[in-house]
């Protein structure tokens, strides 16, 4: 019960921070914790068809502000996590996963052939637009892990869809890597002047949100 109380306490503490204290930086140790939480995220088939860029350069963050419609969190946060989904998915990515699984679990690659054929038979026929939607959805699972992990460390985070993906792709060179920015998360520490931190959290009641069948 103590564990669950701790989880709920962290979720009640967190909010989408609107103003960051740019004098405070996330430590190397805490950043490693956040990265590991993202790395361990669930993903469809375990493929993790995305990359996560971590922007700490003030110069780069400044360039991204205009591509974020002037939202200052992008400039003032300690780091920016940019989740970018892969735009081309096929046998190469599946075979790379199978090789990793074989080496990690010390299994002969032949033992995974059936699973590989299943994935290829399911994923490869998908229309490209459906693939793009699917891979983009995977980044949101990883983002959710980041938000929870950050709250556990009392690190503030702001999930943001309000940015120009094409401009992000250009600034960060994502197009050349067959990646597309899908969601970003500034992380850092709330500014004392951010009035939003004092707002009561607004959520639906259990009766309005849940349906038990």
Folded structure, characterized:
The chain is of the alpha+beta class and 213 residues long. It has a four-stranded antiparallel sheet, sandwiched between helices. It has a single domain (20-200), classed as 3-Layer(aba) Sandwich (NADH Oxidase). The model has no long low-confidence stretch (mean pLDDT 96). The protein contains nine helices and four strands. It has helices spanning 2-13, 28-39, 58-66, 73-76, 91-105, 113-123, 128-152, 165-172, 206-209; strands spanning 50-55, 79-86, 156-157, 179-188.
* Tally of DSSP β-strands: 4
Which strand order does the major sheet show?
Answer: 1-2-4-3
User: Which CATH architecture would you pick?
Assistant: 3-Layer(aba) Sandwich
Summed over residues and divided by their number, the pLDDT gives a mean of: 96
User: Gyration radius, to the nearest Å?
Assistant: 19 Å
The fraction of residues assigned to DSSP E strands is 5-15%
Distance between the termini: 26 Å
Helix content bin: 40-55%
Query: What would the CATH topology be?
Result: NADH Oxidase
SS-based structural class? alpha+beta
CATH class type: Alpha Beta
Annotation field: number of helices: 9
The CATH homologous superfamily is called NADH Oxidase
Main sheet?
Answer: 4 strands, antiparallel
N-to-C series of helices and strands:
HHEHHEHHHEHEH
List segments where confidence is low: pLDDT < 50 over at least 5 consecutive residues.
none
The global form is globular
Number of domain units? 1
Family: Belongs to the nitroreductase family.
Pfam families: Nitroreductase
Protein name: NAD(P)H-dependent oxidoreductase
GO molecular function: oxidoreductase activity
């Amino acid at each position: 019960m103590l564990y669950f109380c701790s989880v709920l306490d962290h979720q009640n503490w967190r909010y989408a921070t609107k103003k960051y204290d740019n004098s405070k930086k996330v430590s190397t140790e805490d950043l490693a914790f956040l990265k590991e939480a993202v790395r361990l995220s669930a993903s469809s088939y375990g493929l993790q068809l995305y990359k996560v860029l971590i922007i700490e350069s003030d110069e780069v963050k400044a360039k991204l502000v205009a591509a974020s419609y002037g939202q200052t969190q992008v400039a003032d946060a300690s780091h920016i996590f940019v989740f970018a989904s892969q735009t081309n998915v096929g046998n190469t990515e599946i075979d790379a996963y199978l090789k990793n699984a074989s080496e990690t679990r010390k299994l002969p690659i032949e033992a995974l052939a059936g699973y590989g054929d299943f994935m290829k038979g399911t994923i490869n026929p998908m229309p490209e637009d459906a693939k793009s939607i699917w891979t983009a959805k995977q980044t949101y699972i990883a983002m959710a892990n980041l938000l929870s992990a950050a709250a556990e460390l009392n690190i503030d985070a702001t999930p943001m869809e309000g940015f120009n993906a094409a401009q992000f792709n250009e600034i960060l060179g994502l197009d050349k890597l067959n990646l597309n920015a899908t969601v970003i998360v500034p992380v850092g520490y709330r500014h004392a002047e951010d009035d939003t931190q004092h707002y009561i959290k607004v959520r639906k009641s259990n009766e309005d949100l849940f349906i038990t069948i």
